[in-house]
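User: Structure please.
Assistant: Input sequence and predicted structure:
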Amino acid sequence: MAEITGGEAVVRTLIAHGVDVVFGLIGVHALPIYDALSKHPELRHISVRHEQSAAYLADGYSRASGRPGACITTTGPGAANTAAAMGTAYSDSVPILNITTQIPSDLVDKGKGFLHEAKDQLGLFRALTKWNARVDRILEIPSVIHEAFLAMTEGRPRPTHVEICADTLAAVADEQDISWVSSGLPEDRPGVDLDKVAEAARMLAAARAPVIWAGGGVIRSGAAEELVRLAETLQAPVVTTVQGSGAIPYDHPLALGYRPAQAAVSTLLAKSDLLLAVGTRFPATQTSTWALTLPKRLIHVDIDEGEIGKNYPAALDLVGDARAVLSQLLDSMPPLSRASCWAGKVSAIRAKIAAEMKSNAPAEMGLLEVIRGAIDRDAVVVCDQTKPAYWASGAFPVFAPRTFLYPGYGTLGFGFPAALGAKIAAPDCQVICLCGDGGFQYALPELATAAQFGVNVTVLLFNDSAYGILKDMQDGAYGGRHYAVDLINPDFPRLVESYGLRCQSLDGQEGLEGALKDALAADRTTVVEIDASVARPPQGVH
């Protein structure tokens, strides 16, 4: 009879669930998994230099591809290093499976001082995931990992965690004794009661001035096409959150942009008699901490029932998958032959916003124009927490879903590793990372990952030798007393080039267009370092 190890069971179960790449950092307790990986080249492994990056790469991969990401980390400190990235994925509803190892099953939680022993490792990840479990029997490995995939992909997508004891991974079992679980993940998308759909359709058809609010749930469910069709049917303008960027093309005549609380947009919302909100929890950053006034009648569509009514009361709740519910609404809408009351007003509002932003921040808007003009329409832009990325979150033209990746959790250090993951997910697309010198240094060692695995991204590195946004806050609120915000940076060109990669330094924005085009044409990761000492943050960013 053929015998396999627990490590082999892990790898074969991942492959059965359609995983073609996994991100990780090898550790002593994980050696049985890595031995199995060496025998399965169909499952590509990307070795990172820090475990946090493994989860960020999985996050970027998932956001860009729409498929679950997967990472493998070892016990204790290695597993704990993924905490910030798992928190980001949880906040932003990104499906990631984090497989960590655990010490031998008979020693777990005994506190005896075994190598890499951690206090309540399972509890740590329980706070950061939708679902997690421990495996201490080899025969249970396939079923528990399958359960993790089910939890990760059913309902609201969020990360999951499975920890597997070291003795379980090293154990051997007869292959025929293991209950293998094929993917079998549900493909049906939950819709809602047809009576509620009919009521929503009647409300939308009767509305004099409807508006649509699109959140990240539209992107995650793949509902952009249905959203645009419904907007065109209703002749309703669409405002999106940052996570919803790309739900409607930026240049669509009904697209309002990404700042719902902007004065011109909030005025339009105040004049609306009905708001259809899809896949959003109305976050504080998009509603002026819930001071934004919404229309009195709200139809709220969300996969997570707990989000309905949490921040704004809904006249009608439609709890279901965004794509399924929008499809139901499209099928239920009566024929409409009316001109929109917003005709001409959307373009006027867009023009007013653009003029105001260009007047208030000509250098920043000029920067975004240069970047947008140099990249493809479907290029993937990945943001870290840096001032140019803050500006981009409200003004960068995005034309397609999954092409603007932004850490809604506010995580510094997300950008570069997430960009590497996005490029692995979308190898034929240009991938551009906007990051500052502080955030870039969270993941500097991943330059080695880019070089080793031939991952080609373009990094626009805005260097102000500081945690710039915090320094600005100290200027404004603390009398200019700068403390703990100034940075001593490496010589970035020499550092980047030491990995066999490319770097070019610019004194400000002059020459950026040419440098960016050269970087995009290069055959390896290129860093374009830009002196950003005079960049300013947009108002209200914190």
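The chain has three domains: 3-177, 194-347, 361-531.
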